[in-house]
Amino acid sequence: MGNKSNPNFKSMRYCQGNKCHEYRTKDRIRGTKGAKYYSTRRRSSFYYSDNFCSLNCQNDWLIKNIEHALDHFGRTTEPKQVLCDQAWYKLCNWNSSSNGRNDYDHYFVNDLLGQRIPITEQQYDDKNITQPNQIQK
């Protein structure tokens, strides 16, 4: 049994799927002989948005609540845009050379500008470098 005063203790929570208790799986069966029932799953952690025990439960909740959530948090009413100078992303391609050596090529790519700039593996791994103009020459 866990101790709530322990910082590593993770309390058990229930799946938020509004139909979780209706899915007839053996791990949802609770109660004693003669008084059994299906129950919402209880876990210390969930895979789906950390609130749902399955994709079915997540989708059930979304179908029921998506309109309300969009009305509450706001709907997109105009297209969002990424301009040319903000459209850079990092790309890593695996290649095999004729001498049997396998290697990776690293790039900054901007499809809007049609540019591909080679970078080092260290520059590729550096989360602070997000555009080619941040590279020290």
Model description:
This protein is α+β, with helices and mostly antiparallel strands. The chain folds into 2 domains: 13-73, no CATH class; 84-134, no CATH class. It is 18% helix and 22% strand. It has helices spanning 55-73, 121-125, and strands spanning 13-14, 29-30, 37-38, 42-43, 89-96, 102-110, 115-119. The strands form 3 sheets. Strands 5-6-7 form a 3-stranded antiparallel sheet. The chain has a two-stranded antiparallel sheet with strand order 1-4. A hairpin with a 6-residue loop joins strand 2 (29-30) and strand 3. The chain is elongated and about 75 Å long. It starts with 12 loop residues before the first strand and ends in a 12-residue tail after the last helix.
